């Protein structure tokens, strides 16, 4: 966690409200493998990172709630008795959505003040949105003694995203952000919402992120459209979700759907298998196999699920040229954001230098490179 940021947010809050706030850290996440499988009841392999949202909150006695996004220098105010969505794309919807979903559960909250800021670049595919939602629900649960379990809290965050932000997301991001364990990744079964933690120590290798700095926008109908394709094909197969389908099952309906939709469903079935195979490879300490699965995931996301972009493909293609990089793929919803790379530690600085230069020359903009440090999930820090 960024202690400097925590200090800045705390000070901004006390300057404004002259009282000590409840301070929350809520992390973003990476995902090793298992993309677009969560809303198909499948497996994902995320981990919380040491970057995220810091939120300072307290009860308000002014008769209204005031929430300030320090990074945008923007404030909204409202009464919890009259909650309604703001215009599309407004950051306030993440906060208001959580308030509304808490109320839908029959819980009563009063007005509150909040200041928040973060160190995850938005649109980087590291889920700053889930981090923000979780910070709000966790903070309000604490302030108003709501007695919500962590599972209830992440379902509230997910529904805020569906109903106020307009993205029909799965549960991966909210789960990873809330339940993260320091130095571990979580093999999450999105049907049972239970996870198996894996200690991450790749010895001579590490995970590195490269941000294309192409901002993805999930509320683009592209995400929801894909979810719909998966649901329609599940219906045709008479199953609850694509997690229950095999490649052979898909063949039985191949002539009844477009090739594009068939490829999307096939991707989901294969990606779900890859996520499980990856956990086996990690158990066996077989990084070569893990890397191949990661490259395979990208290929599927690029050609079958079609959620990549030229910048992401460029970074993965460059990674493939080096035996020191065992695997690379786009991470998160797609259309921008980061690639995740499994790279030899002693090759990091050389590759960083070369890829930054090549990327700049090719796209006339800079990429950003982050090393990854795995963190505990959403928690209070005072
Ligand atoms: C976004 C969504 C997640 C998941 C990923 C793709 O991050 O919020 O629920 O579907 O995309 O794996």
Summarize this structure briefly.
By secondary structure, the protein is α+β, with helices and mostly antiparallel strands. The chain contains eleven helices and 13 strands.
Q: Can you give keywords for this protein?
A:
382 residues; alpha+beta; 4-stranded antiparallel β-sheet; binds alpha-D-galactopyranose
Please tell me what the overall shape is. globular
Helix content: 40-55%
Give the tally of structural domains. Answer: 2
Element order: H for helix, E for strand: HEEEEEHEHHHEEEHHHHHEEHEE
Instruction: Give a count of the beta strands, DSSP E runs of length 2 or more.
Output: 13
Bound molecules: alpha-D-galactopyranose
As a percent range, the share of strand residues is 15-25%
Structural class: alpha+beta
Report the sheet with the most strands, covering strand number, pairing sense and barrel closure.
Answer: 6 strands, mixed
In the CATH scheme, what's the topology name of the largest domain? Answer: Ribosomal Protein S5, domain 2
Mean pLDDT: 96
Helix count equals 11
Oligomer: single chain
Strand order within the widest beta sheet? 5-4-6-3-1-13
CATH class of the largest domain: Alpha Beta
Q: In CATH terms, what is the architecture of the largest domain? A: 2-Layer Sandwich
Low-confidence stretches: none
From the alpha-carbon coordinates, what is the Rg to the nearest angstrom?
21 Å
